[in-house]
């Protein structure tokens, strides 16, 4: 997916007369499958599901590391390409099932995790502050399923990616990650994997950018006719780079971390590479998110280290700004535009009213609510407006460019309150425990919270809720502080009968 998709999501209300049973079957096997294809799918499921369940119960870390490896390595964005291939690893299997194979594996892993928990009810509780929100969103989705079926909406549309099912995917992945890491060695392995894959991706993007034409998914050049090469268009690729940059900067700036000269040079190279990846991607939300991450790191450093960090950050910021703003000003129609004009060229009030800037989409969505503010228009709900001004939507009006706005459109203020409550609970948990952490645990927790800060601009002006990869990476950000706190403070002997918190 991407921040400006046009017809990339398989949505749109299909108001047939199918009943619940036929809709349920359609969710598993599309209507056009032959009997032999159905049998093949069934045999494959019977073979694969026990393997996944076994891995989740006995070796969950390998399932999680496999997921993270895929999420960090493969882009999901096809918006901006002149010749789209029509699919990628995140949509693989949609032709046979209405969910991708990765999503089906996640569902299976979630079910296995539930079985594991029920088999050991006195075991460690996984992030109990967040568990209630998973239950609330599951209950809310069940309500939408019942209401949608009564209205004649097909089940595949109700549970489609354009609703809020990815919020549940995010929470399932968060719980799966928390259950997988059980030692300091696991945290070290996670940090190494983040840095290693980010470096490989960064090197790949750098070669593509400096020696060739950059990312082929480039709407600025392909659709707007602007002479711009970009490093990575997918917001999730920017997140991977920003997270690695934060980890490298944290290790370099932390007074309690002793590094040899070769490691310092390597980490400094990683920092420069990943910051360049974000800056040369020319994504406003990514650059603001990276800025929030480094402001947070600055505030976390002791006084004697802040001056050193400020010098490095100022040098990087000057280099980034000189390139970023020069390219972004190509979008502006104002001749005397400056820094703010380059950042907010499409939402500036000087462009002549609500219909001439990006807020028109949200305005049109608000006008379409028609008394559905409390519970929303349903997971299948759409909005309407001036189709010429909203031409970038194509024929898909089932999403808006705001994660919070999307939650209102689909679930109303009830769903938005749950979503905000979940994020506030996460922030309060981190703030409550941050001073008690040290070593790798502190780095993991800080990196997770910094990752959450990176996603804030995307939640405000992007389309994260409808993007499977984005929401799972957001789930990684949410999980990391719980991993750190659980391993450092709440591990308890497995033979204890009373309930305890492995992850607070």
From TrEMBL:
<feature type="transmembrane region" description="Helical">
    <location>
        <begin position="407"/>
        <end position="431"/>
    </location>
</feature>
<feature type="transmembrane region" description="Helical">
    <location>
        <begin position="259"/>
        <end position="279"/>
    </location>
</feature>
<feature type="transmembrane region" description="Helical">
    <location>
        <begin position="94"/>
        <end position="114"/>
    </location>
</feature>
<feature type="transmembrane region" description="Helical">
    <location>
        <begin position="38"/>
        <end position="57"/>
    </location>
</feature>
<feature type="transmembrane region" description="Helical">
    <location>
        <begin position="159"/>
        <end position="178"/>
    </location>
</feature>
<dbReference type="Pfam" id="PF04932">
    <property type="entry name" value="Wzy_C"/>
</dbReference>
<protein>
    <recommendedName>
        <fullName>O-antigen ligase-related domain-containing protein</fullName>
    </recommendedName>
</protein>
<feature type="transmembrane region" description="Helical">
    <location>
        <begin position="285"/>
        <end position="301"/>
    </location>
</feature>
<feature type="transmembrane region" description="Helical">
    <location>
        <begin position="62"/>
        <end position="82"/>
    </location>
</feature>
<keyword id="KW-0472">Membrane</keyword>
<dbReference type="InterPro" id="IPR051533">
    <property type="entry name" value="WaaL-like"/>
</dbReference>
<keyword id="KW-0812">Transmembrane</keyword>
<feature type="transmembrane region" description="Helical">
    <location>
        <begin position="190"/>
        <end position="211"/>
    </location>
</feature>
<feature type="transmembrane region" description="Helical">
    <location>
        <begin position="134"/>
        <end position="153"/>
    </location>
</feature>
<feature type="transmembrane region" description="Helical">
    <location>
        <begin position="468"/>
        <end position="487"/>
    </location>
</feature>
<feature type="transmembrane region" description="Helical">
    <location>
        <begin position="443"/>
        <end position="462"/>
    </location>
</feature>
<keyword id="KW-1133">Transmembrane helix</keyword>
<feature type="domain" description="O-antigen ligase-related">
    <location>
        <begin position="275"/>
        <end position="420"/>
    </location>
</feature>
<dbReference type="GO" id="GO:0016020">
    <property type="term" value="C:membrane"/>
</dbReference>
<feature type="transmembrane region" description="Helical">
    <location>
        <begin position="308"/>
        <end position="325"/>
    </location>
</feature>
<dbReference type="InterPro" id="IPR007016">
    <property type="entry name" value="O-antigen_ligase-rel_domated"/>
</dbReference>
<feature type="transmembrane region" description="Helical">
    <location>
        <begin position="231"/>
        <end position="252"/>
    </location>
</feature>
